[in-house]
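can u pls check wat happens w/ magnesium ion
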Amino acid sequence: MASVSLSNVVKAFGAFKVVHGVDLDIADGEFVVLLGPSGCGKTTTLRMVAGLEDVSGGEICIAGEAINDRPPKDRKIAMVFQNYALYPHMTVRQNMEFALKPQKLSKAEVDAKIAGVAGMLGLDALLQRKPAQLSGGQRQRVAMGRAMVRTPEVFLFDEPLSNLDLKLRTQVRMEIAKLHKQLGTTVIYVTHDQVEAMTLADKIVIMKDGYIEQIGSPEEVFAHPKNLFVATFIGSPSMNLFRMTVERSEKGPVLSSAAFTIAAPADMNGKVHTRPGGDTRHPPQRRPPCPGR
Amino acid sequence: MGYVNRRNRTIAGVFLLPTVAVLFLTTIYPMLYALYLSFRNYDLAKPFIPRIFVGFANFQEVLTSGPFMHSMLITFKLMAVTLTFQFVIGVGLALLVTQRLPGMAAIRTLLLIPMMISPVIVGLVWLFIYFPELGYLNYFISLIGINPVPWITSTQWALTAIAIADIWQWTPFVMMGTAAALQSLSPEPYEAALIDGNSRIDVFLYVTLPQLKPVLISLLFLRAIDAFKIYDIIFVLTKGGPGDATETIALYIYRQSFTFWRMGVGAAASFVSLIIISVLITLFFKSMQKSAVAR
Ligand SMILES: Nc1ncnc2c1ncn2[C@@H]1O[C@H](COP(=O)(O)OP(=O)(O)OP(=O)(O)O)[C@@H](O)[C@H]1O
Ligand SMILES: [Mg+2]
């Protein structure tokens, strides 16, 4: 098991920047979900951690060691792909054996590992089948099994449930949560489904257009969104937003709309000024896009 | 099929008629006529002798004659050598040109050129290269101090020379088919192998090759059938000689029919080779079905 940290990680494809200086600390054993709309750079970030994409700037550390220049195989990670990436011509057992081949274990050790994982995921009856003879959910479990036999320090998941139907998704989601409890391995999990994020994560990282908008526990991002984007992105139905005007009253500043009036938050006290004839709206607070460390 | 009624079938038949007629005149009739000839004593050099029925005598002569067996041996020897090199080099080149490197598309197109040239022209090109006194090849090897090699005029070298020309022409075919198959493989299993740390050689042997197998088998049989019929390049370069050193089945048939004018024997030899090709094709479809079931 290992901690992972990204500091000011940048990714550019040619001149086109898609990840703009991401800072993220993941503790040992933590389940972190990268959440955001399509095209925000989640997969790209994950692939940089995996070593499948070069890092254009910044540093990625796993277990305290900088791994920017290490090949994927030396990063002690395992990845579960969205379309499972199973070897189509190999049986389930052969898929796992091939994943273990570089570790040069004895036949008995390999068999023991496969038996352990197969038992945990209920794959025993499927070991002799090929991927084409499995249902989507079974393939998904095989993909997880293939990642698990290698006993990595960090699991990377890229939208592992998006090809499953709703019911199965709920079920596998619960299995993943259970496995994480059992194994205690660090997990980085990419999704654009906020139900998955809310139910699985210890920590949610909300991304948009290559920037991190907020990092926090599910409760935090749900109840205390840091900005308008997070506020509207999280929750279904999403949070209500009102355009309010700040006004003076005898009891201090109040926020008022056509329908109702409430007292302004205490920390606004003394900060509201009127400029004669000017705009008195308090601008929505927005964090600078790339907070320094 | 309820909607294809009798009337529509008649019309369909009328439309098919020209094609059927052409097919009959160019393929079926000559084949039947050759079958007829193979049982007759038909010597074009002696046109007034009646073409009497001789039973299986022609077949017996072909199957027991030294020259026919020799031509079979030459054909299969040439086939084994050319196919081996074409597949090893072709698959290697396919792996190379499917890398995402600058200029690969252009290199790939250039490599296809030999395949696009008519075999007779390929023969002529290599004739210039191999020509005993004036050929390019002997000129270049004389530059590095090696004595000229009698490429196409010695029994020792002629078959090798033909094999080189054929490999040059048909390796691109294998490359193109393999490259297309390589590009249709999904990239994710390769990324999974990269993360798991499987060596390149393991990935090639256990991931790439098994997935290419159906395509390679198809290409192999297409090339085998073609190699069995090899004619043009040999005819231009050596005409089967020196002696009978490069006489393949196709050249044997040609020589029997149009040099010795023994049409009956030539026809019988064609049928023997047709049967061999048919067996090859049947094996091909059997193995195709097997690999389809294995999937
Ligand atoms: N190889 C590439 N070359 C150029 N641009 C790329 C490449 N890969 C990704 N991008 C761009 O990077 C941005 C982020 O892509 P990424 O795949 O990380 O998004 P994502 O958050 O995973 O989205 P989704 O939820 O749809 O999977 C997108 O604008 C995409 O067009
Ligand atoms: Mg993605």
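Confidence is low (pLDDT under 50) at residues 278-293 of chain A.
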